[in-house]
UniProtKB/TrEMBL annotation:
This is NEL domain-containing protein.
Amino acid sequence: MYLSHLPYEAKLAELDLFSLNYRQLRGDLIQTYRIVISRECALEFADVFELAGTEHLRDHPFKLQRMLVHTDVRRNAFLQRVVGAWHGLLDEVKLTNFLNIAFWPGIQQRCGTDL
């Protein structure tokens, strides 16, 4: 194939695709939205996440609690890696009923790539 000699980033640009990190983060945020906000998921909120235990939240009422972990396996698990990205989203995005993450402001910067 004519793309086999190109580096990964060049292949993505040529094929007009997003990076694997971006696609993983996007999928994680969609799943988190379904669990936390819309409850359109087979997973129950209480079985997966825990809300932050403070009443003085300056943000939205959906601030998630990050659990203390000691191993890389747990640190890279879905429940751990999604909390920081979830908190980085704008409040109006988290409180909306419109689930189209492609247009969420700031999601591309969360991956550390310029897409």
